[in-house]
Design goal:
Elements: E1 2-9, H1 15-21, H2 28-36, E2 43-48, E3 52-59, H3 66-74, E4 86-89, H4 91-101, H5 113-127, H6 134-152, H7 162-174, E5 181-185, H8 189-200, E6 205-210, H9 213-223, E7 226-229, H10 233-236, E8 242-245, H11 256-265, E9 271-275, E10 292-296, H12 297-304, H13 312-364, H14 369-400, H15 404-415, H16 427-434
Parallel strand pairs: 5-6, 5-8, 6-7, 8-9, 9-10
Antiparallel strand pairs: 1-3, 1-4, 2-3
Helix pairs in contact: 4-6, 4-13, 5-6, 6-13, 7-8, 13-14, 13-15, 13-16, 14-15
Length: 438
């Protein structure tokens, strides 16, 4: 079994590269099917947010090509973006996933949104039948580690967020947000959070446009705003002083000609665009217009970096927790790799034991209950003593090296003529089978 991960994020790739890899939520089921169809992949998960696209997989033989998924599904060749992609295996995958779930790899260290996004990706993968054994154990542990970090450190207290940075930028441009009108295009969680911050700092009214009009009505009602049918977007957008856009459109929905029209109707009063979509909703050409200020997700990142010093000490404490949890989990994972051989060996010797008892029973005649118990205890004790050395050696090898354990397991299978097909290696099944045994 091998863990593999490939991806891009806000640290390794600019937004114009990340948008090439972005997978919109409606296409996730199709993407999961494509991922599972790749040779060698037994389990998988896809995490696609505005700041990262990552593919996590489990391969028993370690030969799976995650790049094939990007080529097949997105028609993007990873080799063309090699300098932006990162690839991890085994323990490095565990460490990366734990850091992502704990918001240590986020643009805003300590922000809570990423944990929710990982949980949503996990739920989608489970619904698709793509996560069911080792990845299930890995993801479940990642959530527990994130909870521990939140409990034992103050990394999330007074956290700077993308939304709060957007407010700071808007205040610098307008001086004051009092009386300013906010327009939400797309009604996702990040847009809602940004709108909440803006209104809390003085913006007085809200317009909401969404492709699903019912969702726009729901969000507008929550903020005491006005829902706008999506087909009226361009004729109403000039009403906004601050426009927050986060849709799933594969192409920009606001282009230079739209900005020129908005400024004309606004008599050149400035407009502030916060584009938190990946792919981007606002064309970079819009930023060349006097009176229009466009900030995309990477622009916000540069501002965020100036605010994170206060949480550096808490982040160091969180990193120490993650390091200990990674060591603990990978140690258990390595041991789990040899469980199929252990279980198979135990079952093999138990079958021999039962067969020998049945054969001896014919020669011994009728036995009392006490005699049956004595024979059972005697033979079980012999089997346990035979099992002690190979099981101890397998567990010890699993702790020491990724290469020694598989080789030793194969030798033991050949020595005892065990079947090549391994039993169920899911964490829960293996735990149940070995409970109470040697």
């Amino acid at each position: 079994m091998k863990l593999l991960l490939m991806g891009v994020n806000h640290k390794t790739a600019p937004v114009e590269v990340r948008e090439r890899f972005a997978i919109p939520e409606p296409r996730l089921p199709e993407a999961m099917r494509t991922l599972l169809a790749q040779p060698g992949i037994e389990e998988g998960l896809i995490l696609s947010t505005c700041n990262r696209v990552e593919v996590l997989a489990r391969s028993r033989n370690g030969t799976a090509d995650l790049g094939g998924f990007f080529r097949d599904f997105l028609q993007v060749d990873p080799l063309d973006h090699n300098q932006h992609l990162y690839r991890y295996e085994d323990a490095a995958v565990v460490q990366h996933l734990f850091r992502v779930a704990c918001s240590l790899d986020s643009m805003v260290v300590g922000e809570p949104q990423i944990l929710g996004q990982v949980k949503e990706a996990y739920a989608a993968a489970r619904a698709a039948g793509a996560v069911h054994s080792q990845l299930d154990a890995l993801l479940t542990r990642a959530f527990a580690v994130a909870k521990r970090v939140r409990t034992e450190t103050a990394i999330g207290s007074s956290a700077v967020s993308v939304a709060s940075v957007a407010v700071d930028l808007a205040k610098k441009i307008f001086g004051s947000l009092h009386g300013k009108q906010v327009y939400l295009v797309g009604a996702g969680k990040m847009s809602e959070l940004a709108a909440r911050h803006l209104i809390a700092h003085g913006a007085t009214s809200l317009l909401v446009a969404n492709r699903t009009y019912g969702r726009a009505c729901e969000l507008a009602e929550r903020f005491g705003g006005e829902a706008i049918p999506f087909d009226q977007l361009y004729e109403t957008a000039d009403r906004a002083d601050i426009l927050i856009s986060s849709t799933g459109s594969p192409e920009p929905i606001f282009r230079r000609e739209h900005g020129e029209a908005f400024l004309g109707r606004r008599k050149n009063r400035p407009m502030f665009f916060i584009d938190i979509a990946v792919p981007r909703d606002v064309s970079p050409e819009m930023n060349k217009l006097d009176g229009i200020f466009v900030y995309d997700i990477d622009d916000l990142q540069s501002v965020v970096s100036t605010h994170v010093g206060d949480r550096r000490r808490e982040a160091e404490r969180a990193e120490a927790i993650v390091a200990s949890e990674v060591e603990r989990f990978t140690s258990r994972l390595h041991t789990l790799d040899v469980v199929p051989t252990i279980v198979s060996l135990q079952e093999h010797l138990e079958t021999i034991r039962q067969a020998e008892i049945d054969r001896a029973r014919g020669r011994l005649g009728t036995l009392t209950a006490e005699q049956e118990t004595a024979i059972d205890a005697l033979t079980r004790g012999i089997v346990n003593k035979v099992l002690h050395a190979p099981i101890t050696s397998l567990k010890s090898a699993a702790q020491q090296s990724d290469n020694v354990a598989p080789q030793l397991a194969e030798q033991i299978r050949r020595m005892f003529n065990l079947p090549a097909d391994a039993p169920d290696t899911s964490f829960s099944a293996a735990k149940a089978k070995t409970a109470g045994k040697h």
